[in-house]
Fold these 2 entries.
Entry 1:
Amino acid sequence: MKKVIFILFAVFLITAPKFVSAQSEVIYAAFTDQLTDAQKKKISSAEKKIKSAEKGKKAAKTIEKKYAKLKKKKSKRKAKKYERKTWKAKQYYIKAGNDLSKAYTSIKDVYSEAINAATYYSKTDEDDAKGLDYECDEKFSEGKGKFKKYKGKKKKDLKKLKGKKILAEINSGQKLMEAGIAKQIEALKIILSQGVKKKKNEEDLAAWDKAKSTNTIAAYNSYVSHFSTGKYVSQARIKIKEIRDAEEAAEAARRANEVATANRVFKVQISASHTPLSSWLISSRAKNMKPLTDTFVNDWYKYWAGEFKTYQEAEAYRDTLAPQHGAFIVVFVNGEQTEVTDEMKGQ
C-alpha cells in the first residue's frame, strides 16, 4: 500500500505544474557597459525583485509540502481542505508573479530605451532591432494579462481557487514576458554589432575616397575586391565602365586620327588666276619649293607649293613667302580639298 502511495505521489510531482524559475538570461550582462547609471540602478532593483520572487516561491512550496498529506487523500472534503489550508501559498505565488512582472517590466523599459536611443549604421539593423522591441511589447501585453486576473484577490477568494490553475497561469505569463525580453536581447546584440559596423563603414569610406582620388580602373577594382559588400561597389563599377568607355573612345579617336593624318597633306596656295600663269612666275613665288601642283576649278587656276605632314610645317614655309601675294594654307584628305580645322592646326 505504501509503495502504491509513493508511486502516486511521485506521479503527482512529475505532472503537477511547477513554478518557472526566473531565468538569468533576462538580464543581458554583455550590454551592461552600454547603460547609464540610472538604467543600471533599475536593472539592479529588478534583480532584487526577482530574488524576492524566488523566496516567495520557496515559502509557497513549504506550505504545500506541509499539507501534502491532504492532497494524497482521494476524499473531496480533504481536497477542499487542502485548498483552504494552502491559501497562503497561493498568495505567495501571486505576489511572486507580480514581483516578476514588475521586475521584467523594469528590465524591458531599460532595454527599450537603449534600443530606441541607439545609433545604427544600417537601416535594416535599425528596423530589425525596433521590430524585435515591438514583438516584446506584444508578448508583455499578453503576459501581463495572465497576472492581472489574480491581482487584488482576498483570502476568501484564494481559498476557492485551485492552486494548480493559479500556478499554471503565472507560469504562462512569466514565460511570455521572458520570451519578450529574449526578443529585446536579440535587438541588443544588433546594437553591440554596430561598433564593428561603424569601423567597417569608416574603412569602407576611406578606401572609396582613396579610389576616387586615384580615379583609375585599377584603383576601383582594388576597392571592389577588398570591399565586395561595401556601400560604394555599384558606384565603383559605374566609374570603371565610364573610364573604360572613355579610354575606348579615345583609342578609337586616336586610330581614326592616325588614319586621317596618314592620308592628309597640307599645301600652301601661292596664287589663283582666271588665266594660266607661267611656270617661271609660279616657281619664283614658291621660292623653288617642290612639288608644285595646280588645278582648274570653277573658272580658276589654282597653284600650290609643297606637301607637308603638319600645319606647323606648312605655316613655317608660308611665313617665308612675300606677304603681298596673300599665300595661305589648304589641306587635302584622301586627295580631296577640305576645310582646315582648329584641331588640325594643333596637331
Entry 2:
Amino acid sequence: MPGHPSDPGCEVACRQTGKNALFSHYCGAMETRLRTRWDLTPREAIRLQAALQPRVEKEDRFETLRYVAGADLAFDPQTNLAFAGVIVYRFPQLAEVERRTARRTLRFPYLPGLLSFRESPVLLAAFERLRIEPDVILIDGHGIAHPRRFGIACHLGLLLDIPTIGCAKSILVGACAEPAARAGSTTPLVDRGERVGTVLRTRENVKPIYVTIGHRISLPSAVRIVKQCLDGFRIPRPTREADHFVRDLRRAHQGQRARDRA
C-alpha cells in the first residue's frame, strides 16, 4: 500500500512500536477537521478568536493515550521562512515513532496575542504529513492563558480536534506565586480572577514552566501528562526535541544559503 509505514519510501520511523497499536493509529494522512481562512487582517483575526473561543473544551474528551506529539517552529529572519516540526512518541514510554516537517514563508506579522495566525499554517502542514495520529499534542505556547482565552494551543487543538496542551516557558497573561523549589511543585496561574493555568516546577531550583488547557483536556490531566513527559530536563521531551528539530532544520537552511552565496 503506497505510503504505508512498511513502505521503504515512507518517512515514518516505526521503531519497535508494535504493529497492532501502530496500525490502529495509522491515519494515512492527518486532516484539519475545521477549515479556516488565514488571509486575515489583525482586526479580523481578533474577531475570529472571539468567535472560536466558545468552542474550546476544557474537560477531558479522550480515551486511552497511546501517542503524544510535540510541535514547535523556528524561522529564518533573513528569508522569513518558517520550519515546523512534529515528533510523535509512544506514550508513556516516550519512544519516538515518527517525525515530520514542513516549511512555509510567514505571511502574518508578529503581534502579541495573534501568534497562532502567524505559525499555525506551517504547523498544520507538518501535522497533515503524519501517518500516526497522536492522542494528545504538546505545543510550545499558551492555550487559555491568553488575553482572549484563545492561544495557539487552543487554535491548533480546535482545528485538528485533538486534545492539546499549551506548555510555555514564560507568562503571557496572569500572575502567580513562585512554586516551591522542589521538582513537581505547582501554583495556580490566575488572570482577572480566573485560573488559566498551572505553574509547574519541573526541576529543582530551575525556572518553572506554564501549563494551560488547549482543547479537549482538563487542567489536572494536562499537568499529569506534562509530568509524564519529563525526563530530567526543564522542558518536556516532546516539545524540547521538537525545538531541537526545527532549530537544526533552520541551521541547515542557513548553512546552505551561506554556501550558495560563497
